[in-house]
Design brief:
single chain, Rossmann fold, two-stranded antiparallel ribbon, 8 helices, 35% helix, globular
């Protein structure tokens, strides 16, 4: 089937605690590599069809999961009791892809999913992974969160951990392509929720990932939009400095938050393919 008309197969797995996780797969005959994609906050696996089609043109297959609380997976929208739940989700998903794919599996995490992927690697949960990719890892937000909101999140994370607030993501920050922005805005599986517990867990995980970045022993590629209005590329630069022996950073000039769904995305697909073929 031509890449531009690819239709995703759907399935589900169980995470370590039994939570059902939905996923999509875009197989490619004779694939030289298979991606296991973990999405960002509020989105879902279906938004990676464009990426799957782009990488299929380079002979690579793609799987993408819906983390708990997202897409078609179980769980309260935008909530985790502990960051470790997302880590276990990612580990279970990558293991599933490894069991199905005949080629090397390359984990890829975008935004919040990039922080999840880092946590999963650092925790030693991906023993068969040889290399991985991060896209706009949410290690540092571009906009400063008001101090009162940070204090409130700290309190409610303990007293009302499931209290969900609006994550205040402006769809116009994800891409410079109007059709992508409109699709994000009208997608019924996209949500704008983040619980106070999740916010607190994310902050802790981001700090721990940077603190332990020097412990990573496998190569990884970091992609960051230099003009990302949502996530500060300085976080990616800091990560690269702390893991320079194994990481490669590509700052993408003019790109917004989603390099796979932005102007010039074909160049990004080619960049990834070239990195993997070294």
């Amino acid at each position: 089937m031509p890449a531009e008309t690819a239709v995703a197969a759907e399935g589900s797995i169980r995470s370590a605690d039994g939570t059902r996780l939905a996923y999509k797969a875009w197989p490619h005959a004779g694939a030289s590599a298979t991606f296991a994609v973990v999405h960002g906050l509020g989105e879902h696996s279906g938004r990676y069809q464009r990426f799957a089609e782009g990488m299929a043109r380079h002979g690579m297959a793609t799987y993408a999961v819906d983390l708990r609380g997202h897409g078609k997976s179980d769980g309260q929208r935008g909530h985790v009791d502990s960051w470790s739940q997302w880590v276990e989700d990612a580990a279970a998903f990558v293991a599933h892809v490894e069991a199905e794919a005949p080629s090397e599996v390359v984990p890829l995490g975008h935004s919040f999913g990039g922080v999840v992927m880092l946590s999963t690697v650092i925790a030693g949960k991906l023993p068969r992974t040889k290399r991985f990719v991060l896209s706009s890892p949410a290690l540092k937000l571009k906009a400063e969160v008001p101090a009162w909101k940070v204090r409130l999140a700290g309190v409610t994370a303990k007293l009302a951990p499931r209290l969900a607030l609006d994550n205040e993501v402006d769809p116009a920050t994800v891409s410079r392509l109007p059709e992508v922005v409109e699709a994000y805005r009208t997608d019924t599986l996209v949500h704008s929720k983040i619980s106070s517990r999740m916010y607190a867990e994310w902050g802790r995980a981001a700090a721990e990932n940077l603190a332990h970045a020097g412990e990573i022993r496998i190569p990884f590629l970091i992609l960051a939009g230099a003009a990302d209005p949502l996530v500060d590329p300085a976080g990616s630069e800091d990560l690269h400095r702390r893991s320079a022996e194994v990481s490669e950073l590509r700052l993408l000039e003019g790109r917004y938050h989603e390099p796979f769904n932005d102007l010039g995305s074909d160049e990004v697909y080619a960049l990834i393919a070239e990195w993997l073929r070294r």
